[in-house]
Amino acid sequence: MPCYRCGVRQTDPERGVSPWRRGVHREAQVLICPACQREHDPDLDHCGSCGSTQLICRLGEVECRSCGWVRPARSSEAETGSSLVRAGAPGLSEEVEAALSRVLGRHPGR
6, 18, 81, 93 - which has most CB atoms within 10 Å? Predict the structure, then answer.
């Protein structure tokens, strides 16, 4: 998954804690690269109970990792957020296809 602000892709993690940050932006789970964390306000959604930005979005709901508050995701905003992530990731389907071909031993044109 790329950084939702600049589109740079996360590389294989090194040992230890990842410098990338997870969050929810417009009802979609996103990653923020270390450079964007330093240069920009991440503009993440906040918990309706405690105000934290440590949210996760999964299976149609948003959960706060700080206080455990859970609410249903709003579908129209979730679609907008998903479009934002896809728009920042041109060529993702081609990259996935190439990776699967390498792993499964497929060759183009067969």
Answer: 81
| In the chain, domain spans | 21-104
Residue type at position 64? C
Is the pTM value of this prediction over 0.85?
no
Per-block mean pLDDT, blocks of 10 residues, the chain (110 long):
87 81 90 88 87 89 93 63 45 73 70
